[in-house]
Amino acid sequence: MMLKLKIKLLILFLVYVATAKAQTSSYKFKRNITGVNTIWHKMVLPDDLYKKANAGFDDLRIFGVNGKDTIEVPYLLKQRADQVTSHDVAFKQLNQSTHPGGYYYTFQSTEINVINQINLTFKQQNFDWKVNLEGSNDNKSWFNILSDYRILSIKNNDTDYQFTKLSFPDSKYQYFRIAVKSPVQPDLLEAKISKTDTIKGTYQDVKYQSFTLKNDVSSKETIIDVVLTNPVPLSYLKLNAQSDFNFYRALKIEYATDSFKTDKGIQYNFANLYEGTISSLEKPEFNFENTIASRLKITIQNNDNKPLRLNGLVLKGNVYEIIARFDDPKGEYALYYGNEKAAAPVYEIEKFESKIPASLSSVNIGPELKNPAYTIKTEKPLFENKAWLWVLMAVIIALLGWFSFKMLRN
Hints:
Blueprint: H1 2-24, E1 29-34, E2 40-44, E3 61-66, E4 69-72, E5 75-79, E6 83-88, E7 92-99, E8 102-122, E9 127-136, E10 143-155, E11 160-163, E12 165-181, E13 188-199, E14 203-206, E15 208-216, E16 221-242, E17 248-262, E18 265-279, E19 285-301, E20 309-318, E21 320-325, E22 332-337, E23 361-362, E24 364-365, E25 369-370, H2 386-409
Parallel strand pairs: 2-23
Antiparallel strand pairs: 1-22, 1-24, 1-25, 2-21, 3-4, 3-22, 5-21, 6-13, 7-8, 8-12, 8-13, 9-10, 9-12, 10-11, 14-20, 15-16, 16-19, 16-20, 17-18, 17-19
């Protein structure tokens, strides 16, 4: 009786092990998760995971073991980027007047609103003006908000640049007055007044391994190659650019997608991250979609101008964070990845994100381990097996013998 019980337990254990391995056997790597003590937790993906996981993170899975049960943990993968919201505030233009100090435009709202941005659109395409901005609640007493704020528009064969957005701290007035200091009458087409709010995301500094700068005289470009230590998320770049004069140059930021060997060494294919302008009027800071990258190429078009003085840069990226639901906190859990054929999982918690607690405690993701359950199924050619070759040879000999016998009999 005791022997039969032991046999049954052994069979159940083997079935359990086989089932657990079947769920995880297609993933090359695993990382143990520690610190699970409640249902909801968050965890930040470690930097050295990105080079092994699929580009879209479709292969990320969390499996847990508790006794004889193997559990797949549902999760949400969040990208902690800035959340920017902007809404227009209704203002009507009261009047337009001229004064020796400039050209004035006054705007009124039916109620007192908080604003922090005004986008101006002019008919003129080339100008360089200074602007003052004031606020008032009675249209009599005015309070200064911006002084000598420079706006600029340049359009020619080489450049198409415009900087006409007034940005300032939150201001709450019923009236706003813009004074444009210009030698000619500005033709104001539109003033779009708005309130923009930014919820800051979670960033981490990214260190680069090398920074190589080349001023190409023939193409009139400055090209910067930046090599990172590992593939990591990038969404922010700041260039330490200096010049003795005001400047505005076309700028392009690209990242390497893959590489190939040539007679001249290893070459790279690049894809665009950002295209815009680096200017002395704006901070040389550029935000773009969070992208996993290991190599950057930054191109600045100098045209016939002296190259800028560039002495380094600052890189940042938004962290990727997993929010997971551990239905059984007592289990032993691990994060699995490294399956090129995996499809993105579909979990119901995506539809009920508002029900997830706002405050979550973090758990730890351990170092990378090779998954011992990982197996590779390789389909061998049919005739690689010697048994098949012997069978094939026997069939051929039998057929030849049969045909030979038939011919001799005839």
